[in-house]
């Protein structure tokens, strides 16, 4: 299954984001909260934003694949999500607003297109 591959890759990115938070916490000796540290705040939000969007989007991608969407469209949607999450997390961590915005645009497009495709298959 195509979505399984993207889910596995995204899981690795999630682990990397988790390790980034842990690394900053250890370096700054902040065990709880963000201690007012901007780099830790950014890492926590990159991690949090990832977990807020990726699971639901993966569910939608699974459903469009299950409904029989052509494999090349599934690859395109999965690639959009992966690139979007990568750009957003690094744009947020490195304070590069254009990269962060591009990542969110790709994530939202993946959500909207997947939802639309599911609705279209229900009508037909």
TrEMBL record:
Gene Ontology terms: cellular component: membrane
Signal peptide location: none
TM region positions: 44-64, 99-120
Keywords, comma-separated and alphabetical: Membrane, Transmembrane, Transmembrane helix
Entry-linked Pfam families: MAPEG (PF01124)
Keyword hit for Transmembrane: yes
Sections of the chain in a coiled coil: none
Compartments (UniProt record): Membrane
Coarse class of the protein's main subcellular location: membrane
UniProt entry tagged with the keyword Membrane: yes
Superkingdom of this protein's organism: Bacteria
The protein, known as: Glutathione metabolism protein
């Amino acid at each position: 299954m195509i979505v399984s591959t993207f889910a596995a890759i995204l899981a690795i990115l999630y682990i990397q984001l988790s390790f980034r938070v842990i690394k900053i916490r250890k370096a700054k000796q902040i065990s709880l909260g963000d201690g007012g540290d901007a780099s830790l705040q950014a890492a926590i939000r990159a991690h949090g934003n990832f977990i807020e969007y990726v699971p639901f989007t993966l569910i939608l991608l699974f459903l469009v694949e299950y409904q029989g969407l052509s494999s090349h469209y599934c690859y395109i949607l999965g690639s959009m999500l992966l690139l979007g999450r990568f750009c957003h997390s690094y744009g947020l961590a490195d304070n590069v607003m254009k990269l962060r915005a591009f990542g969110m645009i790709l994530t939202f497009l993946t959500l909207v297109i997947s939802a639309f495709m599911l609705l279209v298959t229900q009508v037909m």
